[in-house]
Amino acid sequence: MKKKKSFTIMLATLMACTLTLSACGGNKDNSASSGGSSEKPVELIWYTIGAPQKDTDLVIAEVNKYTKEKINATVKMKMIDYGDYSQKMQVMAASGEPMDILFTSSWAFDYVQNARKGAFTPIDDLLTKEGKGITETLDSAFLEGSKVDGKNYGVPANKELPALEAWRFNKELLEKYNLDISEVKSLESVEPLLKTIKENEPNVTPFAISKDYMPLMPFDYLIEKMPMAVKLDTTDYKVVNLLETPELKASLATMHKYYKAGYVSPEAATTTSTDDLMKTGKWLMDRASTQPLADNQWSASYGYPVVSTPAGDSIVFNWSVMGSMQAISANSKYPEKAMEFLNLLNTDKYLRNLLDSGIEKVHYEKIGENMMKNLPDSKNYDIPTFSIGNVLLTYLNEGDPENKWDEFKTFNDAGKNAPLLGFNFDTSKITNEIAAVQNVKEEFWSSLMTGTVDPDVYLPKALEKLKAAGLDKIMAEAQTQVDAWVATKK
Amino acid sequence: MIGGFLKNLFKNKVMLLMVLPGTLWFLFFAYLPMLGTIIAFKQYRYSRDGFLASIVQSKWVGFDNFKFLFSTNDAYVITRNTLLYNVAFITLGLILSVILAVVLSEIANKKLAKVYQTGMFLPYFLSWVVVGYFAFSFLSMDRGMLNQITGWFGMDPIQWYSDPKYWPYFLVLIFLWKAVGYNSVVYLAAIMGIDRSLYEAAMIDGASKWQQIRSITIPMLKPIITIMTLLAIGKIFYADFGLFYQVPRDSGTLYSVTNVIDTYVYRGLKTTGEIGMSTAAGLYQSVVGFVLVMTSNYIVRKVDKDSALF
Prior knowledge:
- The complex is a heterodimer of chains A (490) and B (310).
- Chain A has a domain at 7-161 and 320-417: D-Maltodextrin-Binding Protein, domain 2.
- Chain A is 45% helix and 16% strand.
- Chain A contains 20 helices and 19 strands.
- In chain A, a hairpin with a 6-residue loop joins strand 9 (219-221) and strand 10.
- In chain A, helix 18 (431-449) packs antiparallel against helix 19 (455-468).
- Chain B is mostly helical and 310 residues long.
- Chain B has a domain at 83-258: MetI-like fold.
- Chain B has helices spanning 2-11, 13-31, 51-57, 67-70, 74-106, 110-121, 128-139, 145-152, 167-192, 196-204, 209-234, 241-245, 255-258, 261-269, 275-303, and strands at residues 42-43, 59-60.
- In chain B, helix 5 (74-106) runs parallel beside helix 9 and helix 11 packs antiparallel against helix 15.
- Chain B is flat, with a radius of gyration of 25 Å.
- The chains are: A alpha/beta (490), B mainly alpha (310).
- Chains A and B meet through helix 1, helix 3 and helix 18 of A and helix 2, helix 3 and helix 14 of B.
- Chain B: It comes from Paenibacillus antarcticus.
- Chain B: InterPro entries: MetI-like, MetI-like_sf, UgpAE/MalFG_permease.
- Chain B: This is Sugar ABC transporter permease.
- Chain B: Keywords: Cell membrane, Membrane, Transmembrane, Transmembrane helix, Transport.
- Chain B: It is found in: Cell membrane.
């Protein structure tokens, strides 16, 4: 009898264990009704991008002291590294993991798509009440440009608004061979520089590109890195196939010429990153998106001087507006509190800098009214400044000019609006075609764009396959949507 | 009736207790998630009330999610690649593993045999990303070892990563290098279990080593060979993502010989992230695998009842 009892107990324990386990997923309202009253502070769960930091808990404890007092809320910040962010968040959003605030953008955990799938709470009403400070400080172009089907789902970080591509140069090599970059602008114009380096420096890669490279084209893409596009100076909003345009053909011919001349790495089409070239300094030029004072940043992070010159015009695209946002999760129990917190984060200088640089005298010290210097411990708390909120509130780094944020404002004002700014392509009717076209695109894209293959041979092949995969149907759907959107704008 | 059941339960309690963790594991990680396959027939949208509500509230779309697998002529390429590579992996892997196991069992110096075995075993534990870089150090156009060696003989460097004709051999070779050592352990264990007296009797009768292997080792291995092969056939529609994505460095020009179902699904869905479509692809692979296992098991049972799985 005794034996039997112990077995039953064990079985019961096991059952209990599994029940608790299965219950973990489904608990919804364990502490629901404590929202409004001033008794118990609300805890907001916050997922954001970047490598997890050693001192996060330390800093967040300090943050919570402050926010508890100000808005009766605390936060629990969880960081997920760049490479994992999209995938992990996708799973968490799909499975209904409890969360309140989350980072989203055009390049990680796609904002438009997830807004459409219902991952975020619409914040238009919240912005007029709890988020007033945000609407006051933020350039209105940000909120206007990040609307999805007429609604706002995320708070964009106040930062550089337009996208500007620049040619970057390794200054040491420029000086050694006395090269002039004042005349450089188009892809063709860099050829003499590349040639000089190729002839004199056999160990240097003149033009550093990876498989993500594509020539800068005067088009606004419906989906980034997919061939459906509208010309930047369009008046009739005609959706064209990028691969059929004479502009691209010419650029690809140039790239192929550069490839054959050995100006780019022979493995460019399969190289995922040019970091090793940047580290060793064995490169002459590449292309990167820039912002005010970017040269200083690059030079500081590489440890040798880098100079740049614009490669195109400064343009406000959908994706540049949506470069960094914080959204409120659809399943958040406290959307109002979450908005209050975001409002504070984007307007309160103390909170913003605490979250960005850590605790004063531990992670940084102030060396002026608005200027700071990192202390050695700052390596334990180093989070991406652009990702969590208003960048213009952060203290200047040692060596930054006093007017840094004014330069950002000038930079933002100078940007021209892209034709499709505010339009978001809805792909839900053509997901099958997108999947098929995506596969064909990947097959040809990198080798064409890096100049690895002859465009005269491969461009027609790619076009034929893309059409077979349904590109025309996507373009037709895109045209319908663009036309409808243009009609509502007038 | 119920009393009888309880009595039965009590009588076998030790056995049942032993099987309990496994049962629970299967229940929670294999059977429960199976309900999720209905996502394959839905356009999955998030609901604020959690996962189950999302499933229930999402719109039914029938077989729409499966279309992208069959809609283009890539469908033929990926199916062909997945099947042919797996057939090559299964047959060559089997032959080499068995040969290796027999050779290892015949090495007189047991210490040396262990060293060889460990050496063969090691690649199995490497991640495909690491293997991909190994391969790159051989095949890189400007710095690769292979091009340097061919250069000594005055040959022009070859762009390995843009020429599809070499890759079927590379992929099979790399796969075998990684998998054979591990699989041979299974066969080695089976050989160790063969009754030694059979060999002694054979030796007294004057059988050569070759005759012993052919008439004792191989026939004794037959059941385990059949089981291992049947299990492998069940996975014939799954391709090793790492092998086909990392090792060829995702080079577009090689897709005609490296694109398999798993990489196709990944590439097609990474922009739209439609969970319904990836579930559909997974379901399709499982169903085909299931059908293949059932038929091959049926055939095995017809031929030799004792070797069949069930």
